[in-house]
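Morning run. Coffee first, then this:
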Amino acid sequence: MQLLPSLTTAHALFLDFDGTLTEMAPRPEAVRISSGLVPTLAALSTQLDGALAIVTGRRESDIDHFLDPLRLPLASEHGSQYRLADGSRPAIAPPNLEPVLQAATQLAVQYAGLLVEPKRASVALHYRLAPHLEDLCRDTMLAALRKVHGLDLMEGKFVFEAKPKGVDKGQAITDFMTQPPFAGRTPVFAGDDVTDEAGFAAVHALGGWGIKVGEGPTQAHHRCMTPAALRGWLSAARTSLERAR
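And here it is:
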């Protein structure tokens, strides 16, 4: 692992989930959680006085299931839904997703290996098990989006997702940084996908730094190659902060 900067009690830590804290899986529900991850996140949250949040494309219920019993601050569905100390609330009014959901579902019925993931404010079409269908999936989602106002098509790792315009992980991090316990700290964000680049841009603009997990071009200042390497860095940060107390 590339040597990463040290985490201190002056930081606010934002973490993507899939491909960052966990290895990617063929299907979203098949993700496996490393045995030490939840205790490490719980300890770091305490050491940072609660300034640790998950920023993910996942639904809130998914993250709570995988990280049970932790209930961390959370920007879910790429920043469409926020959970802070005052509870969960939409960051933006959910759009009409029915035309997109219908088109994606009809395609998944026709072709094996496609998975439709409906969310509160978005619809994701996964093609990890059928990568040869990438162009067809893109064309189908774009055609559906032409029937709806206020949606963008976001491309991630083997997924196309229709989400509200103006919503991204960078805006979520920026908003969180105006609220306690994040305000006044230096933000750090770790992510692995092109959808995380907005998050890297946001932390840089706020005087912080990003960690790109894996290969590929990025504007993040730092990189480690695997989720296991990032988990190792988090575990080391936990130990270092414990010793500093």
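The longest strand covers residues 151-156. Good start to the day.
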